[in-house]
Amino acid sequence: MKIHEYQAKELLGSFGVAVPKGGVAYTSAEARAATEDLGGSAVVKVQVHAGGRGKAGGVRLVESPEEAEAAAEELIGNNIVTLQTGPAGAPVKSVLVEEILELERELYLSVIIDGSIGRTIIIASESGGMEIEEVAAETPEKIHQAVLDPIIGYQPFQGRALATDMELNTAESRAFSALLANLLSAFSSRDCSMIEINPLVITKDGRLLAADAKVNFDDNGIFRQSENSELRDGDQEDPLERQANDQGIQYIKLDGDVGCMVNGAGLAMATMDLTQAAGLSPANFLDVGGGASEEQITAAYQLIVSDPSVKKVLVNIFGGILRCDVLANGIVAAYKDGSIDIPLVIRMTGTNWEDGQQILRDSGIKCAIVNDLEEVPDAVRNA
Ligand code: GDP
Ligand code: MN
């Protein structure tokens, strides 16, 4: 789950991470007033769940409250398209209005969970700012890492070593280590999956602050982090993903045109690998879960077909706790209002599979039933 920069900065600030003075504005009048409060100049930044705002004109340095008002007027209420939003862009509902920092240096700092080693890692660079992707690609020696031991946790020498790698002086190194310790405390206390500070700035007057902040929460920790879920902004999420989330369905939108309904994350991954390997392209990842009800199946099916890029649907179910007759009834119910006209390939096996197939045949729904996973690609191609 992603949150806005202003929320991330409030959160990090509460853990003692230094952030610029400022606050969120929902109207141009509020942006103007906030700029007055800051002494007449400010940085006005669109609040969307995506980076790349600077290059897209979403970060403005303004020299007067009037300029702030005009910038907010222009930005709020429109979509902004950045390299990270996709062509439709993201809707701007608010701007963050902050003190202008006199930048001496822009550093990079992030904390993520590296799934390949199952550990939290810290990434830091002396070359932060808007070109960090190029830095990583062209001068990887400027990207430094530290791996946290899951039992011991963060050790201060790791912060000092990263500071040395970035060629910080003694005072900067101290400030960096302290900031990093606070950042890591926020990371673990709030079940984050990623925190990225780019840029982490050193100002001309020697302060070290988080000039930008991206915080992602681990969705699997949300159940025990009610404060995290309060920060959700559904307007920034893919509408289908949001609807799925509300219905308790694991759904991730992808780029292809074959809608997939599968039960179990492992089978879902295998099904997607299979379709991909056969030259087909999944439109989504969808796991209805082990014990889905008929109603949930219907909802999941309707969700898949409501995606305009879906041209065919593939259902691949292993009936364990979820019985195949329940699955079939759920699908048939989705067709009740007669609006679905998309070819369907269905492979089901396990508990009550014969009943399930019979229900589908009796329903009159146009679908290809296959028994073997290997038959799936051809069946989808021919559907
Ligand atoms: P992003 O492009 O979405 O990652 O947005 P950022 O918050 O990182 O802002 C982009 C760039 O704007 C930064 O890399 C800085 O160079 C610049 N910037 C942001 N805040 C300030 C500021 O207070 N003062 C100055 N001089 N530049 C800033
Ligand atoms: Mn940034």
Termini separation comes to: 36 Å
Number of strand segments? 18
Please outline the major beta sheet: 6 strands, antiparallel
Helix content: 25-40%
Helices, by number, come to 13
Strand content: 25-35%
The H-level CATH homologous superfamily of the largest domain, spelled out, is ATP-grasp fold, B domain
Named at the architecture level, the CATH assignment of the largest domain is 2-Layer Sandwich
* Low-confidence runs of at least 5 consecutive residues: none
CATH class of the largest domain: Alpha Beta
Class per helix and strand makeup: alpha+beta
* Distinct ligand kinds: guanosine-5'-diphosphate, manganese (II) ion
CA-based shape: elongated
> What is the mean predicted local confidence, pLDDT?
94
What characteristics describe this protein?
single chain; 383 residues; alpha+beta; D-amino Acid Aminotransferase, Chain A, domain 1; Dna Ligase, domain 1; Rossmann fold; 3 domains; 6-stranded antiparallel beta sheet; elongated; binds guanosine-5'-diphosphate; binds manganese (II) ion
